[in-house]
Amino acid sequence: MKPEERTGMERMKEERAGAGPGGGPRMPGPGRRGAGMPVSKPQNAGKTIGRLLSYIGEDKWKMGIFIFCIVLYTVANLTGSYLLRPVINNLISGEGSRTTLFHSLLLMGCIYAVGIIAQYLQSRIIIAVSQNALRKLRDDLFCRLGKLPVRFYDTNNHGDIMSRFTNDVDAVGEMLNNTINQLISGAINIVGTFALMLYTNIWLTIITVVMAPLMIRAGRAVAGRSRKYYKQQQAALGTLNGYIEETVTGQKVVKVFCHEEIAEEEFSYLNDDLCKKQISAQFFGGIMGPVMGNLSQVSYSMTACIGGILCVLKGFDLGGLTIFVNYSRQFSRPINEISMQVNTIFSALAGAERVFDVMDKAPEEPDAAEAVSIVEKDGRLVFQVPAANRAYADHDGAEAKGAVTVEHITFGYVPEKTILKDVSLYAKPGQKIAFVGSTGAGKTTITNLINRFYDVEDGRILIDGIDIREIRRDDLRKNIAMVLQDTHLFTGTVRENIRYGRLDATDAEVEEAARMASAHSFIMRLEHGYNTMLEGDGANLSQGQRQLLNIARAAISKAPVLILDEATSSVDTRTEKHIEHGMDRLMASRTTLVIAHRLSTVRNANAIMVLENGEIIERGDHDDLLALKGRYYNLYTGASELD
Question: For residues 350 and 233, what is the distance between their CA atoms, to the nearest angstrom?
């Protein structure tokens, strides 16, 4: 079967098996859901637990009160149980009076009441501590995402990233809310119960304790199997969420190409895969309770039988036997409860590892201490050069005019494939430079490098004579405005979306930017004008209106460098003229780099760069390139088309 004839499910099966189309190796790339990646056991469960506990450790005084409440509850529970011994013995011997019985029961009631209050307090405290820890965990994860390079987002599915915030953090929350409470209280309960068992009868204690290693060994055997499956479950859940996010976001495309059945088929495959992994994980997590419960019943039965024999032959008191079998249950119950939490623990550890995996990704390299800043002074943008940076000392206080120079750049996103090959160009302040060429020729890559979304391998890029690697990233990007083909509007008002380009802009500046972008007239026709709420990425606006807001957002930034990446390619010709009118105003005093498929939009550029296979094959203005009768001439006259 030819690769293009395969169904969606066959492709997905092939990918999950680790092969690419046609049986070749599967290469990583943007949007890869990681479906076929091998899943291993946690690399370091102890380290993961330690990192999780560090979030709880920030509320040390609350944890101290929490542990005190657990101890108080355990002591009250054990003491109340022990008071049954004299009550039962006195009733059997007939020595106890009604008054004594009443006082004993009243004392037991008071002790149990203290235990109930302590249990209530410990539950409230651990919920507050765990929710605070989750808040900090989400904060740290979100902050780390903001610091990760664009490469991370280009090579990871957005739905799978979202799964870290939902499924994985929720799994961690389940463990912090309930499991930690049971682990600590169970450990203290075991110690207290063991001490009272020894005090009551040492021989019965030995019988009970002998069963403990058997229970632990059985639990460890089941846990060893379930850990692997819970890791696989979390990965499969992230994959499924990623596919759902892709399909829902691209639902119009699915319907246009009638891919509903293929989408259902692919979803069914991923859903079945998740179901199989969940069955395996839940099975081994679920049998833990019955296994431990049955072993506990065996231990209880042996203790009761041998205790009865001791009562008959050795004079062991019946009250002592009664409380001992109760302690025997209490001794095994924490072990059972802890074993029942195995599925929660491993699900949380798998989720935590996925969260920490993102948090451990290397962020963008920090700016050097001597990096050059761009600040506003007396209404002008000027360079601020630290005294330690002698290489650019003469630029200190100079105005940032937006001259762009690209010198002998060679670059590839992956080492095996070079995208740009020895590219050089320059744009003087206020000039308009256009890039044309086939898809994949490297046009957008140049703009990615100018923004330092990626760093160049060979060569350098200069802004007003300063290497961009010597400029603070935030300052560099604040002074490069971008209008992309794909607009993205946030949930909020029209005014807030325009102000996104410069958060300290006044309302008057927002309206001025809208007028510059030719957006003011349509905004005023909206129901609430600038206060109209936009949701769903501006679904209540046309594509042209969304693009005009995008231009207004760029206009308000006051950046001296403007990048237009096919800003009009997704709109009709009439709307394009309207948008171009706004862009002409926007480009009036800025250095502009334009990427365009429609050659009519670049006729008035100061220089046009024709790229093919990562190289500039022609350069000049419109008339110069027509006179060459080369690639640009063929494109403009229709003799050839852009790929």
Answer: 9
Mean pLDDT of the chain: 79
Instruction: In whole angstroms, give the CA distance from residue 188 to residue 70.
Output: 8
Residue 566 DSSP SS3: coil
Per the CB < 8 A criterion, the answer to whether 457 and 410 are in contact is: yes
Share of the chain above pLDDT 70, in %: 80
DSSP string, 77-118: HHHHHHTHHHHHHHHHHT---HHHHHHHHHHHHHHHHHHHHH
DSSP code per residue over 230-279: HHHHHHHHHHHHHHHHHHHHTHHHHHHTT-HHHHHHHHHHHHHHHHHHHH
What mean pLDDT is predicted for residues 13-23? 41
Contact between residue 420 and residue 446 where contact means Cβ atoms under 8 Å apart: yes
Tell me which residue of 342, 270, 258 sits closest to 9, measured CA to CA.
270
Rounded Cα distance, 277 and 228, in Å: 10
Question: Rounded to an integer, what distance in angstroms lies between the CA atom of residue 254 and that of residue 522?
Answer: 31
Q: Is 0.85 surpassed by the pTM of this model? A: no
Residue with tokens 């859901």: 33
pLDDT in tens, 404-417: 999 999 999 888 88
374-396: b (≥16 Cβ within 10 Å) or e: beeeeeebbbebeeebeebeebe
